[in-house]
Automatic annotation (TrEMBL):
CDD domains membership: R_hydratase_like
Protein name, entry field: FAS1-like dehydratase domain-containing protein
Record domain FAS1-like dehydratase: where: 20-167
Lineage of the organism: Bacteria, Bacillati, Actinomycetota, Actinomycetes, Mycobacteriales
InterPro entries assigned: FAS1-like_DH_region, HotDog_dom_sf
Amino acid sequence: MKVGSALTRDDFDVEAVRSAWIGTVVARTKGRYPVEYDPIRRYCHMIDDGNPLYLDPEVAREGPYAAVIAPGPLLPYFAGGGPWPRKPKSEKGAGRPGWTYGVPTPGDRGINLQVSWEYLRPVRVGDHLSSETRIVEIFIKPIKIDPQAVCIVTEACLTNQRDEAVAVCRNTVLVHRSKRQMAVVGDSDD
């Protein structure tokens, strides 16, 4: 199988790709900073969220979590390593676009189809978050412009400093070929 170049239907073996990639951890990140009140406060003010469990330490202390908690959409920020220094790319899948996570696919055009979050436990100020992303599914999803488009499903598990899962993000990316790529391999249905 050619990685990084156009593949024909005969070249692409989805079952071989599935067996090689499903279960593969494609990213591990330890949050650079602990969960802090000020980024929570700034975020809530930007989106006009006045929830006292996020904004008022006194009210939050008396609430169900006994402390200020982080809004769900901020969890990747706290679990991330920050933009610098850039993370080195893994050897597996080198040369592939980032949205493929290195998985070989016939095309290199990516569309994010779906993101779903499940929040499992509260994240409090002072917690330290980490994230691990793995490939959980790969399948062919024919679309009008490319009958051999491929969906890659990942699952990111965010954990706290006690290795307790606090959230899970499931993401589906569709990767398809451009018209030029399909014309090169003579695989266009036009």
